[in-house]
Structures are given as C-alpha cells and as structure tokens.
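RETRY 2/3 - previous attempt timed out on the joint model. Re-submitting the same 576-residue input unchanged.
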Amino acid sequence: MDKKVVSGYLKNITAIMVVYAIVFYLIQIKVINNYYNGILILAGIYIIVAASLNLATGYLGQLALGHAGFMAIGAYTAALFAIAVDLPKYVELVAGLILGGLMAGIFGLIIGIPALRLRGDYLGIVTLGFGEIIRIALLNLPFTGGAAGLKGIPRYVNFTEIYFLVVVVIAFLFAFIRSRHGRAILSIKEDEIAAESVGIPTTFYKVYGFVVSAFIAGVGGGALGFYQRILDPKKFNFMFSVEFFIIVVLGGMGSITGTIIAALALAFINEFLYSIDELRLVFYALTLIILMIFKPDGLLGRKEFSLIKLLNRFSKKTKIENAD
Amino acid sequence: MSLLKTEHIGMTFGGLKAVSDFSIEIKENELVGLIGPNGAGKTTIFNMLTGVYAPTEGKVLLGETVVNGKKPYQIVNLGLGRTFQNIRLFKGLTVLDNIKIAFHKDMSYTTLSAVFRGKKFWKEEKEIEIKARELLGLFNMEADAGALSSNLPYGKQRKLEICRALATNPKLLLLDEPAAGMNPQETKELMETIAFIREKFKVSILLIEHDMSLVMGICERIVVIDYGRMIAAGTPAEIKSNEKVIGAYLGQ
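RETRY 2/3 succeeded.
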C-alpha cells in the first residue's frame, strides 16, 4: 500500500466520521426530530437494498425485479432469530443481519442457477414471480405471523446502527467492484461472449454476483425489521421491488454514489407524497420520463462521486491562485 | 508437435450440415489462412474450435487434450485466444480495463483479499497493471490506456481486440476477418502487426479472411472450404492455380 492510498482512506474515514457527528448532533439537539430521523433510517435501508440491486442490474447487467423477496427473506430470518434467542443487543443484531443475508443468499443461489440462463425480460419475469412466491409463502407459513404480521421484534436499529451499516455495505461494494471479480462482473454486462473468450467463467460470475446482491438485500431487509419492530408480508410486494429499481435507474446504473443520492432523495419525496398516495406512482412515472429525456444514463451515469478527487481539484485551484 | 488438431469434425444444425469431415493440423509458429466463399462454414469452424459449439462429429485436440464439450473459457485457459468478426470490445470500459479483464486467469486473490485489500491483492493488481501497460506499449497504444474503448478509431479497436486476446497468453490465436472494413493502408499496417505478433509472442495464427492480398501475402498455408467441406489446401501459389478453388469463387 503506498502513501496515497493510505491518505485517501484517512480522508474518507474522516469525512464519514464528520458527517456522522454532525447528523448525530442535530438529532441530539432535536433540529432533526423523530419524524425526520425515521425517514433518514428508512433512507439508509433504501440505500443498502438499492445498492445491492445496482450490483445485479447496473454492474452485472441482469434485470432483477424480485429484490423485495430477498429483503423479506432476510427480514423474517433476522427477526425470527432475534425473537428466538436471548443475547446481548449487538451480538443479536450482527448475527441476525448476517443470518438474514445468508438465507437470502441461499435463495439467490437456488433461483439464480436456473434463472440466470435467461436474459433480459425473461429473467425479469422469473425474479418477479419469485418475489411474489415469497410474499404469498410468508402470508401462509405457520411461523411468520401471517397477514397479521410478525410482532415483538426488538428495536436494534437506530440512526447510528444504520449509518455504519450503510458505510460497511458501500465500502464492501466499492472494494468488490474494483477487483478482478468486479471487473469480471462488469465484462459480463458489456459483452458476455467476449468475456467468455478472454477466459472469464461467465456462468460462475453471474451466479456469484447475483448471490452477493441477494445477500446484501437480505441484510437490508433484516435492518428494516429491526427498525420497524413489525413485519407485514404485504409490504414486500412487486411495487416495493420496483421502487428500488427506480432508485437504481434514477441514480445511474453502475454508479453507487448515484444510488445513494437517489435513495436519499426518493425516501424524502416519498414521505412528502404520502398525503397524496395515489399520485405517488404518477410522480415516479413522470420523473422517469423526464430523466430519460434529459439524462438517459441517470443522475451520475457510470461516474462516481469521489471526495479525494474533489479535494485534489480544490487544492490545485488554491495553489494556482496562490501562485498568481 | 501439433498445437491444434481436428479429426473429421462436423457440425449439424437440425437437417443442415454446416461443416463435415474437416481435418486440420496446426504446428508451432505457423500462419494458416482459412478461406472460402460466404456461408462456406468458416465461422462455424471457428466456433467449434473455441467451444461456442460442440462438434456433432469428430474430435478437436488442443495439444494432447480433447476439448470437445469444454466451455469457451476453459479452452481459452488451455491456450487458445480469438477475436471476432464484428469487434467485441468491452465498449463502456477503458482500454486498460479491457486488457486487465483478460488477465483474470493469471490472478488468484480471493474475494476476501479483495474486500479487505490484502497484500496479495495489491501485489497482483500492481503486476497486471504493469503487464497491461507493457502490452499496450508494444502496440503503441499506451497513450490510449485511459480512453473509453468505444472512442478509439476503427483500426485501433481491431488492434485492441488482438491485444486483449494476446493478454490471455495464447499458443494459438484465431483471427476472424481481422481486415474486415479496413482500407488498403490499414490492411497493410495489420499485416505488419500480424508479422510482429508472430515474431514477438511466438504464437501460431489461424485466420479467416476475405482480403486476398492479406491472405496471399502473409499465410504460409491456406485451407479452402466450400459448402462445409475442405476443397483444397496448400501454399498460396498452389491455391491460386487450383481449379476447384477458382470454381468455388467464380462458379463453374
């Protein structure tokens, strides 16, 4: 590791801690009240799940419309685990989230192996059907609480927990994508035949990317359960999956920072639109149409916002000014 | 020793026999041309050799290994690289990333090492960064390393595709119509590039081509097929005067 990399890490970590400290302080002095705090936490969960969907759709290039299903699996697994055992808070939280992610990953593997032979809209239909199957199953299984919902989940997730969970997930995704595995995944989206012809085991990486995506969606679902304290199968419907899809498209397929911005924006807009719920979908459609006309690649396209680059540009500018 | 040997391979699509009874042997450091009229089955043969199709008859041997039914990426790892008739680059990625992807099999760090940025990750990433830039340098493309591959001019895109195939460290390189869409000047440069590759990388090359000046100019041996069957094989001079070949191209 050279010095530049280390200093880059340090800058990013500092920025992360500063943002955390500011928001935490604002919550403490009630400038951000409970209502907005709740929206922030939901936005964090949106970021996690939408980023995971971006891995499958934006980077791997597979149309996945069932991420609410993976989320539901993760949420119910984590919640049932936390209800069943009696351990210290953070042990239960971390173990619950990992278990939820693993369970979602296993389901991702089971449907990924056959489904990823399909392409485009066919894969979309299979994943959509999968999401619906999960929802119906959760309604009817004996241990999920059925339509009345699963109650009595401990509240383990607050602003601090979700903030650092988002940081971990985003850091993981960045590191994953900028590696040989990530490059293999990107090459599949670009041209599967060419990828195979330069020695990439495409089937393996398609399934692998999809399973990782499902795992993270499951973790996001687990966090949702630990925040809401009640899980209702009706929430994990097709429209929920589509919401994440909209976030990915808005932010830019293949841009994680774009996803973060879009998820934050949509979480707040969503709340303000609750009073006119029936117009919410009209608003989504309109936003997408406008975006497709003016910025078809999404807000950031495939670019990433980089603090280091911004700082470098800034310091260069000041140097030039000083020289003058 | 032969690098590639096919024994009576054939390919049937339903009732259509695209290729039948095709046998060829390629030795080390040879340059062989595969020609034939449109629809003769040249690309089908390429697809059988590279594992896109499994031949319905016969055997394909790469060195000592039978590669029938192996996946394309496994065949690449056995030392067979290829380019495509319509250029297939990773268009949305940079020139450098295009090459780095082809070095995938040379790296062995795990996902865990990648996520935690372990020692092995930095070491291997640094190695392929250097190797990729060296390779681009050999083709005078180092200055384009950071450019999006779709923004390159046509001739350079062809070159990059060849470069990417070489990054997989092949013993045998299959070029599918490398001169397609090139003007005479670019074709001339391509001939020089091909000669350079043979010299520098010690690879054998099998190429499909319609541009006769290129085929006749550089190939040592030419195989002609028509309607899925081999109709002639020999040196360029022999092929030029072969009546069957003239018949196939001009009609009897």
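The mean pLDDT of chain B is 90. Closing ticket.
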